[in-house]
Design a protein that fits this description.
The complex is a heterodimer of chains A (108) and B (115). Chain A is built from no helices and ten strands. With 108 residues, chain A is mainly beta. In chain A, a hairpin with a 3-residue loop joins strand 5 and strand 6. Chain B has 115 residues and is mainly beta. Chain B is built from no helices and eleven strands. The chains are: A mainly beta (108), B mainly beta (115). At the A-B interface, strand 4, strand 5 and strand 9 of A face strand 4 and strand 5 of B.
Chain lengths: 108, 115
């Protein structure tokens, strides 16, 4: 099974900061990686797929990069609505689309 | 507009059963794989099960294998999750999700397993 490890698990930042979250896969997954945002009481929201493709309607301050085993999600200038939990997901293993453990982004 | 609406959650005793449903609209249901994802209170997202568009491929997380069964009715644009032998650790909000990656999600349905 492919394991995804996100770092850090918790991140404290201020509005306007640039933040980066990392996701490492236990084996190479090419670019089969997605990123989601999850807020309490809300459904998860797809932000990025294919490692770097921005989902329609998602602000351009979100970006993704990487391939193989190492991936990053970057938010260029944090906005108040960006404080949430972020998850990576691998789609390399067909129909067994596991998630990372999550990164909680908190207001400093 | 794509819509996914889960139902069927509730309170059930350990060892009991529940059947979740996910009614969909706004897209060609029969063309997409569908999945179930859950979130235990205070924990992360956990992929539970996925089913291909033609039902040829079905996969489960090890934590539910042998107890949960996913199915779909392409004529009714609906996805199902039959959950048997429920345990306290199955308590979670259950979401249905479209495609891969999961570009649309339902609002979730709460499942509580408690005596």
């Amino acid at each position: 099974d492919i394991q995804l490890t996100q770092s850090p698990s918790f991140l404290s930042a201020s509005v306007g900061d640039r933040v980066t979250i990392t996701c490492r896969a236990s084996q190479g997954i090419s670019s089969y990686l997605a990123w989601y945002q999850k807020k309490p009481g809300k459904a998860p929201k797809l932000l990025i797929y294919a490692a770097s493709t921005l989902q329609s309607g998602v602000p351009s301050r979100f970006s993704g990069s990487g391939s193989g085993t190492d991936f990053t999600l970057t938010i260029s200038s944090l906005q108040p609505e960006d404080f949430a939990v972020y998850y990576c997901q691998q789609l390399y293993s067909y129909l067994t689309y596991t998630f990372g453990q999550g990164t909680k982004l908190e207001i400093k | 507009e794509v819509q996914l609406v889960e139902s069927g959650g509730g309170l059930v005793k350990p060892g009991g059963s529940l059947r979740l449903s996910c009614a969909t609209s706004g897209f060609t249901f029969s063309s997409y794989s569908m999945s179930w994802v859950r979130q235990v209170p205070g924990k992360g997202l956990e992929w539970v099960s996925s089913i291909s568009s033609t039902m040829s491929y079905i996969f489960y997380a090890d934590s539910v294998k042998g107890r949960f069964t996913v199915s779909r009715d392409n004529a009714k644009n609906s996805l199902y999750l039959q959950m048997n032998s429920l345990r306290a650790e199955d308590t979670a909000v259950y979401y249905c999700a479209k495609g891969g990656p999961f570009d649309s999600w339902g609002q979730g349905t709460q499942v509580t397993v408690s005596s």
